[in-house]
Amino acid sequence: MIVRRAETAGFCMGVSLALQKLETELAKKEGPIATLGPIIHNPQVLDHYAHLGVRCLTAPHEAHSDERVIIRAHGIPQRLQRDLEQTAKTVLDATCPKVKRAQMGIARKLREGCTLLLFGEKDHPEVRGLMSYAGEDAFVFGEFDELKQYPFQPGKRYCVAAQTTQDRNVFAEIVDWLRMRLGEDLPVLETICDATRERQEEAIALAREVDAMVVVGGYNSGNTRRLADVARAQGCPTVHVETPEELNPAQLQGAQVVGLTAGASTPKAIIDAMQKKLEAL
Q1: Which end of the chain is less congested by CB atoms within 10 angstroms, N or C?
Q2: What is the mean pLDDT of residues 6-16?
Q3: Whole-angstrom distance, CA of residue 261 vs CA of residue 19
Q4: How far, in Å, are 69, 105, 213, 231 from residue 260 at the CA level?
């Protein structure tokens, strides 16, 4: 089987920086370390650090007074950060710089009197963090149809933003629709990161040229799921698995050329192993 591997597959800048921060703290050997929530969305990476003694907390009150706690790459709500600072020995922020920029941009628009319309997954940790900067009137929607049913209020000022890993093409359609409804002067926060755009564009291009696509990465990783979505949208049979062991060769029956890509939190070792498995079919 011929495998065409996406050049952009694997860790993005935000994931790499977060893991570098964690590795730096581990190397100091200055006592226990924890993260508030999974530092990235990849079970294999989380298992690796768990074996090194890194605890994964679900809430600030679980932190010990002697622990250094690292804020996950997706960021956390402001209230949780304040609570964490009251319980942990030290709080280290590993929020992705692109997510942090989105948080600050949303906070600025709130101060200017805008009501936020956020395109994102309501229950995603990044979105929960973003919404904490947006005020009580903010509205988050995961589907275009949800937005179309939103009760806009005359005279109210709105702005629109997106979760950093959302589909850029869908967001562009949303912006066009909102500007027709609310006016061309609608403030738009360009919060979708370049890494997301590049990965999605390459997945689309690959899907149009191969017999099938394989997307590797955590099932709870939003950017990985969207890579599979944009590939399927091209009419290309697409398989999303977390590890090479999960791939059933029957899922690729009849395919001679297969495209391979991976989410922004998928380690290179897993992508390499998947490529070897595909080439051996």
Answers
A1: C
A2: 94
A3: 21
A4: 35, 34, 6, 11
- Calculate the alpha carbon distances from 276 to 250, 251, 267 in Å: 17, 17, 15
Residue 41 annotated as lining a ligand binding site: yes
Catalytic residue, chosen from 126, 198, 242, 246, is 126
| Residue 126 a catalytic site member | yes
Q: Is 164 annotated as a binding residue?
A: yes
Check whether 74 is labelled as a binding-site residue. yes
Tens of pLDDT, residue by residue over 109-126, are 999 999 999 999 999 999
Q: What's the pTM value of the predicted model, to 2 decimals?
A: 0.86
Question: Domains of the chain (ranges plus CATH)?
Answer: 2-10+194-279 (3.40.1010.20), 13-94 (3.40.50.11270), 98-182 (3.40.1010.20)
User: In whole angstroms, what is the distance from residue 120 CA to residue 126 CA?
Assistant: 9
Task: Using only the alpha carbons of the chain, give its radius of gyration.
Answer: 20
